[in-house]
Design a protein that fits this description.
With about 280 residues, the chain is mainly alpha-helical. It folds into three domains: about 130 residues, no CATH class; about 70 residues; about 80 residues. Helix content is about 65%, strand content about 5%. The strands form two sheets. A two-stranded antiparallel sheet has the order 1-2. A two-stranded antiparallel sheet has the order 3-4.
Protein backbone atom coordinates (compact mmCIF):
# COMPACT_ATOMS: atom_id res chain seq x y z
CA UNK A 1 0.00 0.00 0.00
CA UNK A 2 2.72 2.43 1.01
CA UNK A 3 6.11 2.88 -0.68
CA UNK A 4 9.15 4.09 1.27
CA UNK A 5 11.96 5.88 -0.57
CA UNK A 6 15.08 7.84 0.37
CA UNK A 7 15.14 11.55 -0.46
CA UNK A 8 18.53 11.77 -2.17
CA UNK A 9 21.40 11.68 0.26
CA UNK A 10 19.33 13.06 3.10
CA UNK A 11 18.86 11.05 6.24
CA UNK A 12 15.08 10.81 6.09
CA UNK A 13 12.51 8.74 4.29
CA UNK A 14 9.42 9.52 2.25
CA UNK A 15 6.30 7.38 2.63
CA UNK A 16 3.93 7.52 -0.33
CA UNK A 17 0.62 5.73 -0.86
CA UNK A 18 0.05 4.12 -4.27
CA UNK A 19 -3.58 3.74 -5.27
CA UNK A 20 -3.22 0.48 -7.15
CA UNK A 21 -1.74 -1.26 -4.12
CA UNK A 22 -4.89 -0.81 -2.07
CA UNK A 23 -7.66 -3.40 -2.12
CA UNK A 24 -10.66 -2.88 -4.34
CA UNK A 25 -13.59 -1.10 -2.78
CA UNK A 26 -13.54 1.86 -0.48
CA UNK A 27 -9.82 1.45 0.40
CA UNK A 28 -8.92 1.95 -3.27
CA UNK A 29 -11.35 4.84 -3.73
CA UNK A 30 -10.16 6.54 -0.53
CA UNK A 31 -6.53 6.26 -1.65
CA UNK A 32 -7.42 7.75 -5.04
CA UNK A 33 -9.26 10.73 -3.55
CA UNK A 34 -6.45 11.30 -1.06
CA UNK A 35 -3.83 11.25 -3.83
CA UNK A 36 -4.76 14.80 -4.90
CA UNK A 37 -6.77 17.63 -3.39
CA UNK A 38 -8.58 17.97 -6.72
CA UNK A 39 -10.19 14.53 -6.26
CA UNK A 40 -11.71 15.23 -2.82
CA UNK A 41 -15.29 15.54 -4.09
CA UNK A 42 -18.22 14.52 -1.91
CA UNK A 43 -21.96 15.06 -1.67
CA UNK A 44 -23.36 17.93 0.38
CA UNK A 45 -26.79 16.27 0.89
CA UNK A 46 -28.54 19.62 0.64
CA UNK A 47 -32.00 18.03 0.39
CA UNK A 48 -31.52 16.04 3.59
CA UNK A 49 -30.24 19.14 5.36
CA UNK A 50 -33.34 21.03 4.29
CA UNK A 51 -35.60 18.21 5.51
CA UNK A 52 -33.87 18.10 8.89
CA UNK A 53 -34.09 21.88 9.25
CA UNK A 54 -37.77 21.90 8.34
CA UNK A 55 -38.46 19.06 10.79
CA UNK A 56 -36.62 20.83 13.63
CA UNK A 57 -38.29 24.11 12.71
CA UNK A 58 -41.76 22.59 12.95
CA UNK A 59 -40.83 20.88 16.20
CA UNK A 60 -39.84 24.26 17.66
CA UNK A 61 -43.08 25.76 16.37
CA UNK A 62 -45.12 23.18 18.30
CA UNK A 63 -43.04 23.75 21.43
CA UNK A 64 -43.49 27.50 21.03
CA UNK A 65 -47.26 27.07 20.83
CA UNK A 66 -47.21 24.80 23.88
CA UNK A 67 -45.23 27.36 25.89
CA UNK A 68 -47.56 30.13 24.76
CA UNK A 69 -50.54 28.02 25.84
CA UNK A 70 -48.96 27.59 29.30
CA UNK A 71 -48.45 31.34 29.56
CA UNK A 72 -52.00 32.19 28.56
CA UNK A 73 -53.40 29.63 31.01
CA UNK A 74 -51.36 31.15 33.81
CA UNK A 75 -52.60 34.66 33.00
CA UNK A 76 -56.23 33.52 32.99
CA UNK A 77 -55.98 31.52 36.23
CA UNK A 78 -53.89 33.83 38.36
CA UNK A 79 -53.66 37.54 38.97
CA UNK A 80 -50.21 37.30 40.63
CA UNK A 81 -46.89 37.29 38.81
CA UNK A 82 -45.51 34.29 40.72
CA UNK A 83 -45.98 30.86 39.19
CA UNK A 84 -47.90 28.28 41.24
CA UNK A 85 -45.78 25.45 42.53
CA UNK A 86 -47.72 22.88 40.52
CA UNK A 87 -46.94 24.79 37.25
CA UNK A 88 -43.26 25.37 37.95
CA UNK A 89 -42.00 21.85 37.19
CA UNK A 90 -43.89 21.33 33.89
CA UNK A 91 -42.75 24.77 32.73
CA UNK A 92 -39.15 23.96 33.56
CA UNK A 93 -39.35 20.59 31.78
CA UNK A 94 -40.83 22.29 28.70
CA UNK A 95 -38.14 24.99 28.64
CA UNK A 96 -35.40 22.36 28.90
CA UNK A 97 -36.98 20.50 26.00
CA UNK A 98 -37.06 23.74 23.97
CA UNK A 99 -33.41 24.39 24.85
CA UNK A 100 -32.35 20.97 23.53
CA UNK A 101 -34.43 21.43 20.38
CA UNK A 102 -32.94 24.87 19.70
CA UNK A 103 -29.40 23.55 20.24
CA UNK A 104 -30.04 20.76 17.73
CA UNK A 105 -31.62 23.21 15.28
CA UNK A 106 -28.71 25.65 15.59
CA UNK A 107 -26.22 22.82 15.10
CA UNK A 108 -27.85 21.78 11.83
CA UNK A 109 -28.09 25.43 10.73
CA UNK A 110 -24.39 26.01 11.38
CA UNK A 111 -23.44 22.79 9.60
CA UNK A 112 -25.58 23.65 6.58
CA UNK A 113 -24.14 27.16 6.42
CA UNK A 114 -20.58 25.85 6.64
CA UNK A 115 -21.18 23.31 3.88
CA UNK A 116 -22.71 26.01 1.68
CA UNK A 117 -19.37 27.86 1.80
CA UNK A 118 -17.51 24.89 0.32
CA UNK A 119 -16.34 25.30 -3.26
CA UNK A 120 -17.98 23.50 -6.13
CA UNK A 121 -15.69 21.19 -8.10
CA UNK A 122 -14.52 22.46 -11.46
CA UNK A 123 -15.47 20.69 -14.66
CA UNK A 124 -12.08 19.03 -15.03
CA UNK A 125 -12.05 17.84 -11.40
CA UNK A 126 -15.54 16.38 -11.72
CA UNK A 127 -14.64 14.67 -15.00
CA UNK A 128 -11.49 13.13 -13.50
CA UNK A 129 -13.34 11.57 -10.56
CA UNK A 130 -16.28 10.52 -12.74
CA UNK A 131 -13.98 8.79 -15.25
CA UNK A 132 -12.11 7.01 -12.48
CA UNK A 133 -15.30 5.67 -10.94
CA UNK A 134 -16.69 4.71 -14.35
CA UNK A 135 -13.52 3.03 -15.65
CA UNK A 136 -12.03 1.44 -12.52
CA UNK A 137 -15.36 0.67 -10.79
CA UNK A 138 -13.79 0.43 -7.30
CA UNK A 139 -17.19 0.20 -5.58
CA UNK A 140 -20.69 -1.02 -6.46
CA UNK A 141 -22.74 0.87 -9.02
CA UNK A 142 -25.26 2.11 -6.44
CA UNK A 143 -22.49 3.26 -4.12
CA UNK A 144 -20.70 5.25 -6.80
CA UNK A 145 -23.92 6.83 -8.09
CA UNK A 146 -23.24 9.79 -5.78
CA UNK A 147 -21.04 11.27 -8.52
CA UNK A 148 -24.15 11.71 -10.69
CA UNK A 149 -25.55 14.32 -8.27
CA UNK A 150 -23.44 17.04 -9.86
CA UNK A 151 -25.35 19.99 -8.37
CA UNK A 152 -25.02 18.53 -4.88
CA UNK A 153 -21.25 17.98 -4.94
CA UNK A 154 -18.64 20.01 -3.07
CA UNK A 155 -14.88 19.82 -2.99
CA UNK A 156 -12.60 20.03 0.03
CA UNK A 157 -9.96 21.74 -2.10
CA UNK A 158 -9.33 25.18 -0.63
CA UNK A 159 -10.25 28.05 -2.89
CA UNK A 160 -7.24 29.84 -4.31
CA UNK A 161 -7.17 33.25 -5.92
CA UNK A 162 -5.78 31.91 -9.19
CA UNK A 163 -7.03 28.32 -9.15
CA UNK A 164 -8.10 28.44 -12.80
CA UNK A 165 -4.54 29.46 -13.78
CA UNK A 166 -3.20 26.45 -11.87
CA UNK A 167 -5.59 24.20 -13.79
CA UNK A 168 -4.56 25.80 -17.08
CA UNK A 169 -0.88 25.19 -16.36
CA UNK A 170 -1.59 21.60 -15.37
CA UNK A 171 -3.68 21.11 -18.52
CA UNK A 172 -0.82 22.46 -20.64
CA UNK A 173 1.66 20.15 -18.91
CA UNK A 174 -0.53 17.14 -19.69
CA UNK A 175 -0.68 18.21 -23.33
CA UNK A 176 3.13 18.54 -23.43
CA UNK A 177 3.70 15.23 -21.65
CA UNK A 178 4.04 13.46 -25.01
CA UNK A 179 6.31 15.78 -27.02
CA UNK A 180 8.17 17.23 -24.01
CA UNK A 181 8.13 14.60 -21.25
CA UNK A 182 11.23 16.06 -19.60
CA UNK A 183 9.48 19.40 -19.09
CA UNK A 184 6.54 17.82 -17.31
CA UNK A 185 8.90 15.74 -15.15
CA UNK A 186 10.39 18.98 -13.84
CA UNK A 187 7.03 19.65 -12.23
CA UNK A 188 6.98 16.32 -10.40
CA UNK A 189 8.54 16.01 -6.96
CA UNK A 190 9.89 12.71 -5.67
CA UNK A 191 6.59 11.95 -3.95
CA UNK A 192 4.48 12.77 -7.01
CA UNK A 193 6.80 10.67 -9.20
CA UNK A 194 6.09 7.68 -6.97
CA UNK A 195 2.35 8.28 -7.37
CA UNK A 196 2.72 8.63 -11.13
CA UNK A 197 4.26 5.17 -11.41
CA UNK A 198 0.96 3.51 -10.63
CA UNK A 199 -0.51 4.08 -14.10
CA UNK A 200 -1.30 6.64 -16.76
CA UNK A 201 -2.24 9.32 -14.23
CA UNK A 202 0.53 11.90 -13.71
CA UNK A 203 0.65 13.88 -10.46
CA UNK A 204 2.35 17.27 -10.45
CA UNK A 205 3.83 19.11 -7.51
CA UNK A 206 1.36 21.73 -6.33
CA UNK A 207 4.16 23.96 -5.02
CA UNK A 208 5.90 24.07 -8.41
CA UNK A 209 2.68 24.85 -10.26
CA UNK A 210 1.94 27.64 -7.75
CA UNK A 211 5.42 29.03 -8.36
CA UNK A 212 4.85 29.16 -12.13
CA UNK A 213 1.44 30.77 -11.61
CA UNK A 214 2.99 33.43 -9.38
CA UNK A 215 5.65 34.12 -12.03
CA UNK A 216 2.97 34.47 -14.71
CA UNK A 217 1.00 36.94 -12.59
CA UNK A 218 4.16 38.95 -11.80
CA UNK A 219 5.05 39.17 -15.49
CA UNK A 220 1.53 40.32 -16.34
CA UNK A 221 1.64 43.03 -13.68
CA UNK A 222 5.01 44.30 -14.92
CA UNK A 223 3.73 44.30 -18.50
CA UNK A 224 0.63 46.25 -17.51
CA UNK A 225 2.84 48.86 -15.82
CA UNK A 226 5.65 49.15 -18.38
CA UNK A 227 3.97 48.66 -21.76
CA UNK A 228 1.49 51.60 -21.56
CA UNK A 229 4.26 53.92 -20.33
CA UNK A 230 6.44 52.89 -23.25
CA UNK A 231 3.61 53.36 -25.74
CA UNK A 232 2.76 56.82 -24.41
CA UNK A 233 6.44 57.81 -24.42
CA UNK A 234 6.82 56.58 -28.01
CA UNK A 235 3.65 58.46 -28.97
CA UNK A 236 5.00 61.71 -27.53
CA UNK A 237 8.31 61.35 -29.40
CA UNK A 238 6.49 60.57 -32.65
CA UNK A 239 4.62 63.89 -32.44
CA UNK A 240 7.60 65.93 -31.11
CA UNK A 241 5.76 66.69 -27.91
CA UNK A 242 2.86 68.35 -29.74
CA UNK A 243 -0.50 66.68 -29.17
CA UNK A 244 -3.07 66.76 -31.91
CA UNK A 245 -6.64 65.58 -31.54
CA UNK A 246 -5.62 62.24 -33.05
CA UNK A 247 -2.72 61.82 -30.64
CA UNK A 248 -4.99 62.67 -27.72
CA UNK A 249 -7.49 60.06 -28.86
CA UNK A 250 -4.70 57.49 -29.13
CA UNK A 251 -3.54 58.26 -25.57
CA UNK A 252 -7.07 57.91 -24.24
CA UNK A 253 -7.45 54.63 -26.15
CA UNK A 254 -4.21 53.26 -24.68
CA UNK A 255 -5.27 54.22 -21.15
CA UNK A 256 -8.71 52.71 -21.68
CA UNK A 257 -7.41 49.38 -23.02
CA UNK A 258 -4.80 48.87 -20.32
CA UNK A 259 -7.11 50.01 -17.54
CA UNK A 260 -9.64 47.42 -18.69
CA UNK A 261 -6.87 44.80 -18.82
CA UNK A 262 -5.73 45.76 -15.31
CA UNK A 263 -9.28 45.50 -13.97
CA UNK A 264 -9.70 42.12 -15.67
CA UNK A 265 -6.50 40.82 -14.05
CA UNK A 266 -7.73 41.94 -10.63
CA UNK A 267 -11.08 40.27 -11.21
CA UNK A 268 -9.62 36.98 -12.48
CA UNK A 269 -6.58 36.53 -10.27
CA UNK A 270 -7.74 38.00 -6.96
CA UNK A 271 -10.83 38.01 -4.76
CA UNK A 272 -11.09 41.80 -4.84
CA UNK A 273 -14.58 43.21 -4.39
CA UNK A 274 -16.17 45.59 -6.86
CA UNK A 275 -15.36 48.76 -4.96
CA UNK A 276 -11.78 47.56 -4.45
CA UNK A 277 -11.40 46.96 -8.20
CA UNK A 278 -12.83 50.43 -8.86
CA UNK A 279 -10.37 52.06 -6.45
CA UNK A 280 -7.39 50.10 -7.82
CA UNK A 281 -8.33 50.96 -11.42
CA UNK A 282 -8.55 54.64 -10.50
CA UNK A 283 -5.10 54.54 -8.90
CA UNK A 284 -3.75 52.68 -11.95
CA UNK A 285 -4.99 55.42 -14.31
Amino acid sequence: MFVVSYCGNEAFLTVCALVNLFEEGYPNLAAFQDSSECFMIYRRFGYLQARLLLNRQDELRLLEEELDSHDRAHVEQSTTRALPAEDLLPRRVLLEKIERAIAAYANILNTAQQMMTFNRPSGSEYTSVYNYLDNEKPIHKLERSYIEHKEDLVTLRPGREHAWLDRSIEFLLRKLDGPLPLLTRLFCSQETRLKSRQGAEVYYSRERINLVASCVITIMILALLIVPIYLLYHLINAHDGVFSSRATAQCIGILLVFTLAFSAVLSLFTRAKRHEILGAATAYV
